[in-house]
Amino acid sequence: MIEEIRISNLGVITDATLPLGKGLSVVTGETGAGKTMVVTALGMLLGARSDAGAVRTGARSAVAEAVVRLVPESPALARAAEAGAAIEEYDGEAELMLVRTVNADGRSRAHVGGRSAPVGTLAEIGEQLVVVHGQSDQLRLKSQAAQREALDKFAGNKLAKPLAAYRKAYGRWREAARELQTLRTEARERLREAEALQLALEEIDRIDPQPGEDEALKAEATKLANVEQLRAAAQLAHQALVAEEFTESGDATSLVDTAKRTLEQVQEDDPELAKSAGRLAEVGYIIADVAAELASYSAALDSEGPERLAELEARRADLAVLVRKYAPTIDEVLEWAAVARSRLDELTDDSTRIESLEAELASLDAELASLSGTITGVRTKAAAELAKKVGQELSALAMPDAKLQIDIEPAGELGPYGADTIAFLLRPHPGAPARPLGKGASGGELSRVMLAIEVVLAAVDPVPTFVFDEVDSGVGGKAAVEIGRRLAMLARYVQVIVVTHLPQVAAFADNHIRVFKSSTKATAKDDGVTASDVRLLSEEERVTELARMLAGQEESELARAHAQELIEGAKER
To answer: If pLDDT is split at 50, 70 and 90, which confidence band does 140 have?
Structure first.
């Protein structure tokens, strides 16, 4: 709900704070005091088009601020968080600040939770928070989508289950239809793709690359290209380890063996030398092993001649073709081939897939037809019940001849919510044609129609805050009392703010706010200034205000007694 609204330099209001609370809040005041500026401020906070004419004369800008308290799961809070708003949470609830500034030159700025945001974002958040019903603003249930959603919520659980099953089947139906359309319209392209993949895979299969083969062949080719240098190095190293008859100098094997035998002769005299002799024996074994490996290496080099190098280069050339065409490395070529085979299987299975999709769509068509029929039946019954209940409310609101008509017509094709076109129509009096909401009725009548609808829908389709401007226009007496009572009924579920001039309505208020007007006399230098202030009234002040609204005589004991009687009567009702 909205906890507080602050208005600065808007119309005749210089600076005012409206403390709001739960239940029904009424805004009253003399004609021209600026009551409608409250609705204007809310419109600004809802992202309405900026109007430089609303800026107070002489001021640079008008500002509307609101402190809103929401539950953590509120969609409005989620949208604000997406916009980067700073949100304060405590006592299981969250607090959000909304600000709209309109400059005298017409430029506008919006802030959500202390962060600058587009005005469109403010409008998206406002749609989840406030519904305004006024002389020219009928935002709720204006579109067919909103009317369909309201009717479906009124229908309740009887509709929820078949509608959920329908939406699931409809989603699958759309996916299958889209896939079938793709298969049919892209048949030639898919055939060409399959042929290209087939040729590519045949080429890869013919060459038959192995994982890591390109790197292995590269290493082997490098080795064979430098065979003479490798052979010479291996032989020299071998001779250094095992000289045999090729050199007169001692080799590593002989030198290590001499050192070992020398230490063995005295190892019994000192255990440390015995340990060193053992380690030299290990070195001798290692040298012998390395010498044998070098001898084998040299022999192997002698067996790998130019023919092997030619084979390697030819194989590398074949692999290079694959790398150039399909992927940077042979391993990636093999990965590409695996994906390509899967895609080829999918493409070559088109005829079977088409048959399967056609059968699935036929089954889904039958299922959707059955479910949509059930949905239409439930909606038809709910529409009749909703129209009846709204009609009863309209009778109590001094519109006994007005009827709400809910038409449910075939849409001609299946949609995401069934096969129905839903329209809320108003028949203002017998003999008049039923027309869409917002047409064929005055602003005051339309506000009462919307009040009747909201009272009926309040338990199943609530919005946190409702605002009614001049909902009591053109009525009085008993009808005014009924309007007040129904506003109080609606306020049991949501926060309701009403701008009214009728004491019968104001008597039902949980919070009574008055707009006071003051003026300075015109002089030769200027035309005078009109300003307004806003104040939450105490219980005693409420009696005074209702007396003023009743008779224009705040101090009249008779008027005050009547005002007190209205308040007591409202409490009883």
So the answer is: low
